[in-house]
Amino acid sequence: MSTTETFRIPRHRRHVPTARQQVRKALANWGVTDQLADSVTLSANELVTNAVTHCRVSCAQVEVKLSLHEAQLVLEVSDPDRDRLPRSHDSTPDEEGGRGLALVAALADEWGCRQGPYTKCVWALFALGETESARVPSAL
């Protein structure tokens, strides 16, 4: 069985905490807690921050989608700036930013991006370990 939670926020930095709270709430409702919830929430924070920072479409909204399918959880963050794909780069110690994708790569089992007709989506996949799978209700 699978379940999905989707929501949108305005493309502005002040809405990043709202996205983070909604992700945390959805995970808690599904019984996903502890380190996995922390990793997914931190990854969502980084991907949403990137979307609101780098999207050049005015009056845009950022969509966040969490999907729970048996033994994996998928986080997707989409925005309408389809031609500006994210790129990882090596940040110097003096740089304030630029480490978000490296952090997502370290936390997730896989990550990537894809272009849709009008949007781009950056996704991260998290495998549920036996402990997490046992906690997530099978009725979802």
Q: Give the biggest sheet.
A: 5 strands, antiparallel
Strand content: 25-35%
The CATH topology name reads: Heat Shock Protein 90
Distance between the termini: 6 Å
Helix % is: 25-40%
Q: Tell me the number of structural domains.
A: 1
What is the CATH C-level name? Alpha Beta
Order of strands, main sheet, comes to 1-2-3-5-4
> What is the CATH homology-level superfamily?
Histidine kinase-like ATPase, C-terminal domain
Structural class: alpha+beta
Shape, please?
A: globular
Residue-averaged pLDDT: 87
Number of helices: 4
CATH-derived architecture? 2-Layer Sandwich
Low-confidence stretches: none
Summarize the helix and strand pattern as letters: EHHEEHEEH
Radius of gyration: 15 Å
The tally of beta strands, per DSSP, is 5
Written description of the protein model:
This protein has a single domain, classed as Histidine kinase-like ATPase, C-terminal domain (Heat Shock Protein 90, 2-Layer Sandwich). Helix content is 35%, strand content 29%. It is built from four helices and five strands, in the order βααββαββα. It has helices at 16-29, 34-54, 100-107, 130-135, and strands at residues 2-10, 61-69, 72-79, 110-115, 120-127. The chain has a five-stranded antiparallel β-sheet with strand order 1-2-3-5-4, covered by helices on one side. Strand 2 (61-69) and strand 3 form a beta hairpin. The model has no long low-confidence stretch (mean pLDDT 87).
